[in-house]
Amino acid sequence: MTLKEIKSGVFWAGIIDWDRRLFDELIPLPEGTSYNSYLIKGTEKTALIDTSDAEKADEFIKNLRDNGVKNIDYVVSNHAEQDHSGALPAVLDAYPEARIATNPKCKDMLKDLLLIPEEKFITVNEMEALSLGNRTLEFIIAPWVHWPETMFTYLREDKILFPCDFLGSHLATSNLFAKDELVYRAAKRYYAEIMMPFRTSIKKHLDRIGQLNIDIIAPSHGPVYDKPGFILDAYRDWVSDEVRNEVVLAYVSMHGSTLAMVNYFINSLVEKGITVKPFNLTKTDIGELAMALVDAATIVIASPTVLAGPHPAAVYTAYLVNALRPKTRFASVIGSYGWGGKMLEIITGILSNIKIELIEPVIIKGFPRDENFKALENLAGSIAEKHSSLNISK
Ligand code: FEO
């Protein structure tokens, strides 16, 4: 593949992974992904920003060689995770003169994860400058997007920010630059799955890069943003404290009792003007569920009782919600049991790490009767009142 020129002397040199469908053995990739690397040619030095996943190392090196890259002085490592650092050992083999430029914490992680020796590194610190001759790299230490060692690189003269994972998207596309609604959805999914737990850090980093003069944002997954406002405005919306008049309803049913409750409850919420996003947990893509949690004011988990506790799919979902730490304000649980159990206690126990107000659950015995439907109606009413109190009912 030929390198793609972003600006004169600055090239996209990455790998598009069209077929990958799972990341970290956890995250679905319906649109594939890319491992973006960038080659920057200065009058005196040449730098590479990040590399690729180890599985694509041979292809990555071949691309560089086929495109006549004979010398690399610096490989900037913005992030130690292996989808960007995995090809570093191969780069060091192919270009033994290269030195990895990174912050001390990232250096230690690369030494641990990839067994790279100390002498291959030069360390850089906050706003330190690294000259390439007519071009200058500056480094912004930006921890917790989404590991502790993450940093951004800013190419001063060209006003290009390389933020690695931050602001990126899992999207395989032949378009170099972000063009359409597909990118918005892929970036939102990426934020929900990877960045949402670090919302507080992200707010600070957005403020920080807001002070820079940026023409182009070149992340390490997905297309490049030649209109930075597109992704910066989207992120400001997602990380804001504002929630929407929406209920995420994550449900699973075994013999139809919980499903009857879910169907009734959906209608009750809709009649009260609330947007409902139901997810059948036996079929749902967890990325879609995570995306819905970016904005929703309330999550309701609906589960039957099995082996004295929640259905394992409901446990998994509660665990995921707890880990993703959405800005969701309210939660409730609905469901059915045959003869007893601790379904409610187990689910609420899992959710204990997030600041969320529990609204009176509706847990019933057997198939729902009139009084159970009435309780669901009341729950929908309580949720509508809570949403009204936030002025989000319209
Ligand atoms: Fe794309 Fe955190 O690695």
Explain what you see.
The protein is an alpha/beta fold. The protein folds into two domains: about 5-240, Metallo-beta-lactamase, Chain A (4-Layer Sandwich), CATH 3.60.15; about 245-385, Flavodoxin domain (Rossmann fold), CATH 3.40.50.360. It contains twelve helices and 23 strands. The chain has helices at about 55-65, 80-85, 90-95, 105-115, 180-195, 200-210, 230-240, 255-270, 285-295, 310-325, 345-350, 370-390; strands at about 5, 10, 15, 20-25, 25-30, 35, 40, 45-50, 75, 100, 120-125, 130, 135-140, 150-155, 160, 215, 245-250, 275-280, 295-305, 310, 330-335, 355-360, 360-365. The strands form five sheets. A seven-stranded mixed sheet has the order 1-2-7-8-9-10-11. Bound molecules: MU-OXO-diiron. MU-OXO-diiron binds near residues 79, 81, 84 and 165. MU-OXO-diiron binds near residues 81, 146 and 221.
Could you give the topology of this structure?
Layout: E1 4-7, E2 10-12, E3 15-17, E4 22-23, E5 27-28, E6 33-35, E7 38-41, E8 46-49, H1 57-66, E9 74-76, H2 82-85, H3 88-94, E10 99-102, H4 104-114, E11 121-123, E12 129-131, E13 136-141, E14 151-155, E15 160-162, H5 181-195, H6 199-209, E16 216-217, H7 229-239, E17 244-251, H8 257-271, E18 275-280, H9 286-293, E19 296-306, E20 309-310, H10 312-324, E21 330-337, H11 343-350, E22 357-358, E23 362-365, H12 370-389
Parallel strand pairs: 8-9, 9-10, 10-11, 15-16, 17-18, 17-19, 19-21, 21-22, 21-23
Antiparallel strand pairs: 1-2, 2-7, 3-6, 4-5, 7-8, 12-13, 13-14, 14-15, 19-20
Helix pairs in contact: 5-7, 5-9, 6-7, 8-12, 10-11
This protein binds MU-OXO-diiron.
